[in-house]
């Protein structure tokens, strides 16, 4: 799990292994991650884009960038939150993800990155 606060924006990520959609014999492990974005600040913000850094168990890095999350660019007033679930395929049973969401303040149009601390993607039986 990852729980990070940047300028009043709390991002919580809870990953889980999806065994029924994985095929270890073919070198394919699928993970889901549930994200909660909560505006604990006093200003309205909008999520503009995402940047993920995905590292597998062999150290291979993939970066994913794009507008919004799951087709949305949510606007969050103070006290509001947005939740979504997405997935990440890996070629190893263990890996990590981290990144940031680019946010813009509604009043001033000032942009900032809300950081997402690294979290672990791991098959429950894998300890390392």
Average pLDDT score = 96
Residue stretches low in confidence (pLDDT < 50, at least 5 long) are none
Order of helices and strands: EEEEEEEEE
The CATH topology is Immunoglobulin-like
**Can you tell me the overall shape?**
elongated
Structural class: mainly beta
Number of helices: 0
CATH class: Mainly Beta
Which CATH architecture is right? Sandwich
Taken as a percent bin, the fraction of beta residues is over 45%
Q: CATH homologous superfamily, by name?
A: ApaG domain
How many distinct beta strands?
A: 9
Largest sheet: 5 strands, antiparallel
Distance between the termini: 16 Å
Q: Name the helicity range.
A: under 10%
Number of domains: 1
Structure summarized in a few sentences:
By secondary structure, the protein is mostly beta strands. The chain has strands at residues 2-6, 9-17, 29-39, 45-56, 61-67, 75-76, 81-90, 94-105, 111-122.
Write up this protein.
Residues 3-128 form the ApaG domain. With 128 residues, the chain is mainly β. The protein has one domain (2-122): Immunoglobulin-like, CATH 2.60.40.1470. It contains no helices and nine strands. The strands form two sheets. Strands 4, 5, 6, 8 and 9 form a five-stranded antiparallel β-sheet that branches. The radius of gyration is 16 Å and the shape is elongated. The two termini are 16 Å apart.
């Amino acid at each position: 799990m990852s729980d990070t606060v940047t300028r009043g924006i709390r991002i919580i990520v809870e990953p889980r292994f999806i065994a029924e959609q994985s095929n270890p014999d073919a070198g394919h492990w699928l993970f889901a991650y549930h994200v909660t974005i909560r505006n604990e600040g006093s200003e309205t913000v909008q999520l503009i884009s995402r940047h993920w850094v995905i590292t597998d168990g062999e150290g291979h890095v993939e970066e994913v960038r794009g507008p919004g999350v799951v087709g949305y660019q949510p606007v969050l007033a103070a006290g509001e939150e947005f939740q979504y679930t997405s997935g990440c395929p890996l070629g190893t049973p263990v890996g990590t993800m981290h990144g940031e969401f680019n946010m813009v303040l509604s009043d001033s149009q000032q942009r900032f990155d809300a950081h997402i601390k690294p979290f672990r993607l791991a098959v429950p039986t894998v300890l390392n």
